[in-house]
């Protein structure tokens, strides 16, 4: 493996060029406003575990507002940002991902979203509480204006993305022809559901210019949750792994969302859907800013194939576990580990 020798970079590995060069034309596109969206979602989740969502109903303006607030935070002096860190796992993180030695060319904010209707009485849209690891400092856009821990761009964005993800999961249930239609969405939208939001910034790296290589921004992994909803600016870098193990680049689209199937959804469908392996290559030239909402179930939720998807006499491919148990195991693992393998029968 080629790594940059600069110790300041913690030996962040370089990434090879993906198949099809910079742009892979085969990313499935699902139009959420069309009848038949459910079938298209199911096909994409079976084939790649990944799709692009258009006509999702969220104004690009709202995405841009949150992006601008994130950029403002990441432009603060390092000493200011570090008052919210180190991420352990929540808070501001710089190059270190998780607590088990993974590194990448990025900085980020990672925090828990809890549904907490009591936290704010002044804004109808604001029913979330954001938890950073330390209370003594909050990035400016998280500083409350109404007595709770909210910013309007962030809370409006979270409310809108939750509604959209719920529509996607209902549509998915429709495509899978399972009843009740909220069989999947209720796992992700319960008041005890384990939601996480991550704002990632992959800064430029001028030394890479002319080398025709990229630096690992976020190493390869699968997301442990049910689904993840990703939006980025128009800078490329996201790559997904196809079934044959080759990597392809996802052309960025700042007006759309990208949906990842996570490990839990793979189990809930008894392996019919594929939790997608993905990574980010930092091109070093244009900064990439992404915001990802990870939809996890409540900690006590048992994760097992939905009975509605099990034909008669069919056996689960997985041992039983709760999301709390899976998450604990995930947080003990390295980023690139196959976390599901220890739960396979
Ligand atoms: C190395 C790690 C970072 C991670 C926790 C873990 O131990 C293994 C899973 C990683 C991951 C990947 C998807 C999400 O970005 C994330 C927040 C998650 O839930 O699982 C990260 C974790 C993290 O950054 O803390
Ligand atoms: O930043 C991105 O585009 C993707 C990051 C990612 O996969 C993650 O945070 O889990
Ligand atoms: Fe991810």
Automatic annotation (TrEMBL):
GO MF, one annotated term: gibberellin 2-beta-dioxygenase activity
Cofactor: L-ascorbate
Enzyme Commission numbers on file: 1.14.11.13
Alphabetically ordered keywords of this record: Dioxygenase, Iron, Metal-binding, Oxidoreductase
GO BP: any one term: gibberellin catabolic process
Top-level EC class: oxidoreductase
Gene3D superfamilies with a match to the protein in the record: B-lactam Antibiotic, Isopenicillin N Synthase, Chain
Every Fe2OG dioxygenase domain range: 192-297
UniProt-listed PANTHER family: 2-OXOGLUTARATE (2OG) AND FE(II)-DEPENDENT OXYGENASE SUPERFAMILY PROTEIN-RELATED
Protein name: gibberellin 2beta-dioxygenase
Organism from which the protein derives: Musa acuminata subsp. malaccensis
């Amino acid at each position: 493996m080629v790594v940059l020798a600069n110790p300041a970079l913690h030996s962040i590995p370089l990434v090879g060029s993906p198949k099809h060069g910079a742009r892979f034309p085969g990313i499935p596109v699902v139009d959420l406003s069309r009848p038949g969206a459910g079938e298209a979602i199911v096909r994409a989740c079976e084939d790649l575990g990944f799709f692009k969502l258009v006509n999702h109903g969220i104004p690009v303006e709202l995405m841009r507002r949150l992006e601008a607030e994130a950029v403002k935070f990441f432009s603060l002096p390092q000493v200011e940002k570090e008052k919210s860190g180190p991420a352990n796992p929540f808070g501001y993180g710089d190059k270190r991902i998780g607590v088990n030695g993974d590194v990448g060319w990025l900085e980020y904010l990672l925090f828990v979203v809890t549904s907490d209707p009591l936290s704010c009485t002044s804004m109808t849209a604001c029913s979330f509480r954001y938890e950073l690891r330390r209370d003594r400092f909050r990035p400016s856009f998280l500083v409350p204006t109404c007595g709770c821990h909210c910013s309007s761009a962030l809370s409006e964005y979270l409310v809108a993305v939750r509604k959209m993800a719920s529509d996607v999961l209902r549509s998915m249930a429709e495509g899978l022809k399972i009843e009740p239609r909220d069989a999947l969405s209720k796992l992700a939208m319960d008041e005890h559901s384990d939601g996480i939001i991550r704002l990632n910034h992959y800064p430029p790296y001028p030394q890479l210019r002319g080398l025709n290589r990229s630096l690992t921004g976020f190493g390869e992994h699968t997301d442990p949750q049910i689904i993840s909803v990703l939006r980025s600016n128009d800078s490329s870098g996201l790559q997904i792994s196809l079934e044959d193990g080759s990597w392809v680049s996802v052309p960025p689209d700042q007006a759309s969302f990208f949906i990842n199937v996570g490990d839990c959804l793979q189990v809930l469908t008894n392996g019919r859907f594929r939790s997608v392996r993905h990574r980010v290559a930092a091109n070093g030239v244009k900064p990439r800013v992404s915001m990802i909402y990870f939809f996890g179930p409540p900690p006590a939720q048992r994760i097992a194939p939905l009975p509605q998807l099990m034909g008669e006499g069919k056996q689960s491919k997985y041992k039983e576990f709760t999301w709390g148990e899976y998450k604990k195991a995930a947080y003990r693992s390295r980023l690139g580990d196959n976390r599901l393998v220890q739960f396979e029968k």
